């Protein structure tokens, strides 16, 4: 068992070393590399799409946190008003009703942001790591393919041809080619499909966000106007002396 593990480890190290050597030769211009301009464009699009998805998810999550904080601040304010606003003052019951309305509006708004915007964006964002792994794997398989291709070319150019080694190298190259091309074909189908998802995902999320925001702002405006009217009535009653404390005469 230990020998099997040791052999597997040695094989893995050898494979990594071979890839590293091939990349160095390619970077130094001493070995050609397979070029695929179409896939390069797909990968550029993917990287930009992933970056934008992560940024949007981060900001929407932060926006939701701030909305929940504002909801908490609003509830705290109304709780304080319920204690400060004395029972005999005009509009006391209306103030409580508007506090309940405000709480329901913010609760519904935060719920919609979570369910209709952040959750879909999270599902959209979670696709990218697996695609990233697949793209990286394709890159490794391409290096393997190029490396095997160069090994076969070197064997064929050798002064003394070893037909056995050449035959084995051809088989290894064919295996590398099939593995690479299968993965490459999958990504050729999947990456454009993923890229086309960016518009419907962004548009539906923004539509849900701003529709919910428009509702909470419109309804909150009505609540604010009612509260303003209550405060105005209290001010008028105060001006009329309704709540003036009766003054007594100090004893001598």
Can you walk me through this structure?
Its main location: cytoplasm. Keywords: Coiled coil, Cytoplasm, Membrane, SH3 domain. One of its GO terms (molecular function) is phospholipid binding. This is Amphiphysin isoform X4. 85% of the residues lie in helices and 0% in strands. By secondary structure, the chain is mostly helical. The protein has one domain (34-225): Arfaptin homology (AH) domain/BAR domain (Substrate Binding Domain Of Dnak, Chain:A, Domain 2, Up-down Bundle), CATH 1.20.1270.60. Helix 2 (37-84) runs parallel beside helix 5 (163-196). The radius of gyration is 35 Å and the shape is rod-shaped. 12% of the residues are buried.
How would you briefly describe this protein structure?
One of its GO terms (cellular component) is cytoplasm. This protein is mainly α and 252 residues long. It has helices at 2-27, 37-84, 92-125, 128-157, 163-196, 198-239.
Features:
252 residues, mainly alpha, Substrate Binding Domain Of Dnak, Chain:A, Domain 2, 6 helices, rod-shaped
